[in-house]
Structures are given as structure tokens and as C-alpha cells.
Amino acid sequence: MEKIRNAKDLQVFLNKHVTELEQALDISPVQFCIPLNKKRPHVRVSVTQGQKDRVPKELAFDFNGEQVLIPLEAVEDYQEFVAF
Amino acid sequence: MKLSDALEVIGDHGLDILDTQGSGIEAVAIGSKDGKPLAQATDFSILAFVPKKLSKRELSQNNIRSFDTVFANSTGSPSQDPFDIDVVESGGAFTINSNFSVPRNQRGLYGGKPATIDTQKWFSSLRCGIGCTNPVNSYPSSLSVGTIGFYLEDNQKNTYLVSNNHVIGGSNSATINDSIIQPGTLDLTGNELNQMPTLNSLIAQLEIAKLTSTVKFKFSSSNNTPHNQVDAAIAKLTDSGRNKTELARLSFGGSILGEAAPLAEGPNPEQITGSTNVYKVGRTTGYTEGIVTAIAATAKINYPTGKVHFTDQIVITPTLDNVGPFSDRGDSGSGVLNEHHELVGLLFAGSPKNTLVNPIHHVMDQLRTVSNIPSLRVITA
What we know:
The complex is a heterodimer of chains A (about 80) and B (about 375).
Chain A (H helix, E strand, L loop, with lengths): L1 E2 L3 H19 L5 E5 L7 E4 L11 E6 L2 E10 L6 E2 L1
Parallel strand pairs in A: 1-5, 3-5
Antiparallel strand pairs in A: 2-3, 4-5
Chain B lengths: L2 H17 L7 E6 L11 E7 L5 H6 L5 H9 L9 E5 L41 E2 L13 E2 L2 E4 L5 E5 L1 H4 L10 E3 L8 H6 L3 H8 E8 L12 E2 L4 E5 L20 E2 L4 E2 L6 E2 L3 E6 L3 E18 L2 E13 L16 E4 L3 E9 L4 E5 H12 L5 E2 L3
Parallel strand pairs in B: 2-3, 10-17, 12-19
Antiparallel strand pairs in B: 1-2, 4-5, 6-7, 6-21, 7-11, 8-9, 9-11, 13-14, 15-16, 15-18, 16-17, 17-20, 18-19, 19-20
């Protein structure tokens, strides 16, 4: 099974399948994004303190008719966003 | 007079006019005679700058020569049209802004805030980054403010301001044709609030637009979490008497030059390319700079009318050169631009460390759809 390493595909995956990703991780509250750091494209998972170990390094998903691995990076930096 | 004639007068006689003893003239220049902005003027006049405008009697009493006399003596003949010359009160002599230097023991005697544009005040010339409110259903019991992000136009030459749904659209609860006012109600002084005690009096004085269309939120429920990409609304500018010739202009220098392409996959498919250095001008924090640190962000935002789940958002972190956050309450609706002065998105939410922005292509696509105006485009310089 291949990992998604293509930034564009990761963005499409996250926009389409965020609900399934939330359900698969079963952590709340949680936020996702694709960080623009120098690491290979991956999904950054922002969680609250003590939840980091619950996030696997990758998850398998059906994407565009294929089984792919979504690389994940857990960070305990969850902060609530409010409308300004 | 024609510009070429005015230039000839200044070139041939400007120094003579200034050198005339007893005139009190500090400077001469060419100005607009027809009241239009200089860039649009077709009729020009010679201006004399004096510390204070005096009546003929005061001039005589103080032995000061009038400008029409000085003009006639310097050029050899009176002006053809009395309105070809004019006197402008400058308040004092022109002085150089020399290096601000004082003896060390006088430190503390000087200071104060540097001169700047106040994005919270009433503006005679509408522009981006200034405060606004939809006061219907809240004024006078409740005060609020957000920011005008940028402006749009359509093929019929109508112009619209853009802000957030939760700023001017009532988070889905506002009504089409609601009045939008500038400045925002939260920025009115006590005297102004007393002078405009009712909604009607407020609208009569401060309306600049009427709500046209809102991208409605799809709220989350216990068994359904629809995705949203945009918190936006537009209001059509009315004949408010405000100047509308600088709509592309940001409050702090510069103008919007276009829309940025979405941050996209680069030549290396593993990397994202596009300008990530951004800035914004907003009602609360003014001019701030930031860096796009993430894309495709998801977040759940609590609005007064319900919870909204956003996807595909841009995350911005302030640079170290800011004295505070990239944005704060009241900056909602600000346009965010990249270093090429292209619109990257519409600011709508934040946390203590980060700001969330709707990508501009989502904003424009959905505004065109909800308004049924496919020709909508960003007003640029």
C-alpha cells in the first residue's frame, strides 16, 4: 500500500474525507491541516494535551478507488478558533 | 487655465512671485480649478500658499501685498480669469522634517503616537481595511464592528463591499437590503451615539451600502456535519456622498493588484509553491504581517446561530516583526494579501496564535453563485 506523498492529492483527500478521518481517529476536539514546513506533505493533527499517543503515524483509506496510507503527525497544540 | 499654460507661468514667474517682498507667500504651485482630484482635473489654477488667509482690509493694515497684485507685477499682467489664481492657507511656513534630535536630558519631553491612519474612524474616501457594521436588529442596544475587506464590481458598474457573513450578514439572520454603516457602531463616540439615538438616525448619517447577498452557513447538527469554505457577504454601495475613487486602496499604503492563484503543487509534487508572505489591514490591529504556515485546514467555529464546520482554510502565523497578533476581534472581513499585493483570502477567525482565512477562489466562486452575478470581479488598482 502506498503513502500519499503528493501535496495536491493530500489536500483533495483532506477536503473530501475529513469526517471519515475524524471518525477513524475518534479524538475530540481535533483539527487538521497540511503544514507548509520543510517536511514531506502530511496531515498535521492538532490535539489537546495527553492525546498525542492516540494518533497513529499513518492510516489506511480508500482514495480515488485505491487503498492509500495517509501520513499523520500529531501535535498537542489544539487551540479553539473563534470568529473575529 | 490649461495645464501647459500653468506650467509656463510657474516656470517663468514662480520664483519671482516667491521673492516678492511683503507678500507673505510661502510657496506657489499648480492646483485643480474645477474641484476635481488633480488626476482628473481639466482646468488648473496657480496657488499661493500663505500662513493665514486675510481680508483685503487686513492685508492693507499689515502692509501685505495681495496675491493678485503680486501675480500681475511678476507676470506683467493681471490673470485673465480671476479664478486662475487662488490663495491656500497652509497654517504656517513649510519646514524640513529634519532628523529628530534632542539633548539627552530632554528625553521624555517629546513623543506621542506616530501619525497613522485610524481604521476605526469615519472615512470620506471608502477604502479597504476600515470598520463597518450591519446595525439592523441590534442598534442601539448592542454595538459591533468588523472590517471591509475589499470591493467588487459587476458589468453594470455596480460596486459592492465584501466582508464576512457574521459581520454584515448576521450569521444567516440578516435581511437583504439591510443598511451597512461606516464607521462601525462600536467605534462611535459617546457624543455621536447621543446624536444618533435611533437606528433611522444612524442610517441617515452613516449608511454606505445595502446588503445584497450572503453565503449562507450550513450548520452542523448531531447527525450531520456539512462542510463550509466561506464566511462572506456583499453589500451594494449606495449614493452616500463618500468618495469611491480609491476602492482598491488599502488604508496603509498600496493597493490591491489582483487575486492570488491558489497555493498549489510546485514542480516538485511533494512541495507547495506560491507566495506565503502575507499582510493585511484591519479595523483592530491595523497593518500586520504574517506567514502562511498551513493549508487545507479544518476547524469548527461557534457562531451565535450555530456551529459551522470549515474545510480547506488557510492558516496564518504572525511574523516576529509584529508587536502583537496577526489579527484580533474586529478584524473579521479583512482582505489578506501576499507580497505581490494579490488577494489571498478573507480573514474570518482566529486563535491566540493563528488566524484562519477563506481562500479567495472559494470566496469569489461562492459570491458569484449566491448573488447570481457571474461578472463579479475584485476592484484592483
